[in-house]
Design goal:
alpha/beta; eight-stranded parallel sheet; three-stranded antiparallel sheet; 15 helices; about 40% helix; globular
């Protein structure tokens, strides 16, 4: 059921419009995917996500493998039935945990042994074949090849050694995948070396996938370096298949990524910041705990039409956060995700109208205004 169609290319930009078709619905690209690590976007229900316009969400293979287990989820009909989410789902492969849980894992050519971060004792061995099997059981519409995400900085020799392993794993994932109707994406790696990333993209295209992700970015490098790696990678990826930038990022990153030809994004930034009382707005970040908002009758962002901004003041939200009320987290998350999803709607509209460069310039200039 998976299909990607390119519907419009931008003028003066590599940004483009597309449509991804899955058995659980269509996705308009460029798209931002809210992160639901453990089959739940924190503090929100599936109805909330539908209300704010989420077309696809992301869940984490490794965490769901540990708890409640992929076999249990399969027995409930897969993630869609288990969490009552009717729209598309993407699952990552667990490769990011090779980076984020570096103290709890051991990498070999065969696979990765993880020591559970839940109980600190149980060990789990995940191979490329097993990563595919787990994701097939989860039933996501888009699944990812198992890869090794390396830290920054990394030596050229280590980046190359890791890349060769990632390519071997990608081929094993391709060979292991059953005819389930799920789309399998390969993941470009290569550290911060432009020529190695170009080689990775070309190698994965030769193996053949339904889409291509760019991993191993936003791991501590500077923004200019991240954008440089995108510029070195994207031209080697097929124009008629989706391009997914993993784990990125800020609103500015999304706008810059689209300008360089990226179709799909995910990041915990909007939800995590919301739970900490930091909101994204049309004029920059707003930290709601600041004393200046104690009697402020304005919404978080007067330009926003989310449920939170239509109904609640900054003063009330500040009270909720300072009082430790759970509602604060929910209302903040609704706003931040609405901001991200609305940003992508405006991005798509500007590409459709042939004015993306103008949109980008105006957006970035406003974001440079004083942040609260």
């Amino acid at each position: 059921m998976f299909n990607f169609s390119l519907t419009k290319t931008g003028e003066g930009t590599a940004g483009r419009l597309g449509k991804i078709t899955t058995s659980h619905g269509e996705i308009s690209t460029p798209v931002f995917m809210p992160v639901g690590t453990q089959a739940s976007v924190k503090t929100l229900s599936p109805a909330d996500l539908t209300e704010i316009g989420a077309e696809i969400i992301l869940s984490n293979t490794y965490h769901l493998f540990l708890r409640p287990g992929h076999e249990l989820i399969r027995d409930f009909g897969g993630l869609h039935e288990f969490m009552n989410w009717k729209r598309p789902v993407l699952t990552d492969s667990g490769g990011f945990q090779v980076f984020s849980l570096a103290d709890l894992r051991k990498v070999t050519d065969e696979g990765v042994t993880f020591q559970s971060h839940i109980d600190g004792g149980a060990k789990h061995f995940i191979t490329p074949e097993y990563a595919v099997e787990i994701q097939e059981a989860l039933g996501a519409d888009i699944i990812m090849a198992f890869d090794e995400c390396i830290p920054y900085p990394a030596t050229r020799d280590y980046a190359m050694e890791s890349l060769e392993r990632t390519h071997r794993w990608a081929k094993r994932c391709r060979e292991a995948k059953k005819d389930t109707g799920q789309a399998l994406f390969g993941i470009v790696q290569g550290g911060m070396y432009a020529d190695i990333r170009k080689l990775s993209a070309e190698t994965l295209v030769d193996i053949g996938f339904e889409g291509y992700a760019i991993g191993g970015l936003s791991v501590g490098e500077t923004k200019p370096l991240m954008y440089e790696m995108l510029e070195a990678t994207v031209p080697s990826l097929p124009e008629d298949q989706p391009r997914y930038l993993m784990g990125v990022g800020t609103p500015e990153d999304l706008v810059e990524g689209v300008d360089r030809g990226i179709d799909m994004f995910d990041c915990v930034m909007p939800t995590r910041n919301a739970r900490n009382g930091t909101f994204f707005t049309s004029f920059g970040k707003l930290v709601i705990r600041n004393a200046r908002y104690e009697r402020d009758k304005a919404p978080i962002d007067p330009a926003c039409r989310c449920y939170t901004c239509r109904n609640f003041t900054r003063a009330y939200l500040r009270h909720l956060f300072n009082a430790g009320e759970v509602l604060a987290l929910r209302l903040g998350t609704i706003h931040n995700l609405h901001f991200y999803l609305d940003l992508m709607r405006r991005v798509r509209a500007s590409i459709e109208q042939g004015r993306y460069r103008e949109f980008k310039k105006d957006f970035l200039e406003k974001r440079e205004a004083t942040e609260s």
